[in-house]
Specification:
Radius of gyration: 19 Å
Structural class: mainly beta
Oligomer: single chain
CATH class: Mainly Beta
Low-confidence stretches: none
Distance between the termini: 19 Å
CATH superfamily: Hcp1-like
Strand content: over 45%
CATH architecture: Roll
Helix content: under 10%
């Protein structure tokens, strides 16, 4: 039996920052990277690894409409304060087996494109962020 109609489609993805839906979203990604310390025990040629920590990072891309949100972030950063935010991602394709939702509390922006454009192309803005994987939780899962 084929699951071709249950494969989830990214077209139905949504993103919220501090409870406000992000308009014109075109891409979202997040990942966790584990960090290991390598050990070389005596009497062995092989390398063993011990998990020491993990880091979370992500990014989102929107089609450029307004710059007001970016302008306010830059103004806050100029004061020396850092801004943390709660990011919520949800993917809910009606043809799939359900929906998936993940909340990323206390995210910080890592980089912010102030301006980026290319002739003949729609302008997009990208924001990258960091989060603590220990604080992430699923609201829905498939």
């Amino acid at each position: 039996m084929s699951n071709k109609n249950k494969v989830i489609n990214g077209t139905y993805g949504k993103l919220w920052i501090n409870g406000v839906e992000v308009a014109e979203l075109s891409k979202f990604s997040s990942k966790v990277t584990k960090k290991y310390e390598e050990r070389h025990p005596c009497g062995q040629l092989g390398t063993e690894r011990t998990l020491i920590s993990w880091d979370g990072e992500g990014s989102y891309t929107v089609k450029k409409v307004y710059s007001s949100a970016k302008k306010s972030l830059v103004a806050i950063q100029k004061t020396g304060k850092d801004v943390d935010m709660q990011i919520t991602g949800k993917l809910a394709d009606k043809n799939s087996a359900g929906q998936e939702g993940i909340v990323y509390p206390n995210c910080i922006t890592e980089s912010l494109n102030l301006m980026d454009f290319e002739s003949g192309k729609v302008v997009e803005d990208s924001v990258s962020f960091k989060f603590n994987p220990d604080n992430v939780y699923y609201t829905d899962s498939i």
